[in-house]
Specification:
75% of the residues lie in helices and 0% in strands. It is built from 2 helices and no strands. It has helices at residues 13-29, 34-69. The chain is elongated, with a radius of gyration of 16 Å.
Length: 71
């Protein structure tokens, strides 16, 4: 992970998901001090929430289109 992180609010779904995978990998590997682990955990929580936002938005768009197609 880079030292210069893009704000989570600016990440698209794929980038947020990929970074979340990396955060989980680092945390599972261990070896981080407590402060680093907590910072990673917090970033991971933000990334997971961002992914959920994107998925919820996609679901709403799909539901809207399917609703328009209903007779």
């Amino acid at each position: 992970m880079s030292d210069e992180q893009i704000p989570v609010s600016e990440l698209g779904y794929e980038k947020a998901r990929d970074e979340l995978i990396e955060v989980v990998r680092i945390l599972e590997a261990g070896g981080q001090d407590l402060d680093s682990s907590l910072a990673l955990w917090e970033r991971g929580e933000e990334l997971a929430a961002r992914c959920t936002e994107h998925l919820d938005g996609a679901r709403k768009r799909i539901d809207a289109v399917l609703g328009e197609e209903a007779p």
